[in-house]
Design a protein that fits this description.
Elements: H1 2-9, E1 12-17, E2 22-24, E3 32-47, E4 50-57, E5 62-63, H2 65-70, E6 77-90, H3 91-100, H4 102-128
Helix pairs in contact: 3-4
Length: 131
């Protein structure tokens, strides 16, 4: 496990964003998996000229992996709220992990899918539960 963690840590790129700075831009190509260390990341989508708030990523959360794995351009945008410190596991690093350590990549993806399911389950329950 320590060896796998070292492999993963060696590929994480520190990123800092100032308040209001674009973290990802709609139409841009995927950068990879972001892990938020501090600050907040505010995510929106524009539909028919209306801007909709989608999510607020907080310290300890991740985002972006679906776009990276699917090789899909962003259809959302995200901005820093306050100063943000994050780690980025780039698209290239994700591909490399798949080649050199498929078990590690599978474990990472399993954890991310479980987290995504938990978020989707929470959102669905919030929509269907009467107040």
């Amino acid at each position: 496990l320590a060896d796998e963690m070292a492999i993963l840590r060696a590929r994480l790129v520190p990123r800092t964003f100032a308040d209001g700075e674009v973290v990802i831009a709609e139409g841009g190509g995927p950068e990879g998996l972001f892990l938020v260390l501090s600050g907040l990341i505010d995510v929106h989508i524009d539909q028919s000229g209306v801007r909709h708030h989608l999510a607020m990523f907080t310290p300890g959360t991740t985002f972006g992996v679906v776009y990276a794995v699917a090789h899909r351009d962003y259809d959302i945008d995200a901005h820093a709220k306050g100063e943000v410190q994050a780690l980025l596991l780039t698209v290239a690093a994700l591909a490399e992990l798949s080649r050199i350590s498929p078990d590690l990549m599978l474990a990472l993806l399993r954890r991310l899918v479980a987290g995504a399911f938990d978020s989707l389950d929470w959102a669905t329950r919030a929509l269907v539960t009467p107040n």
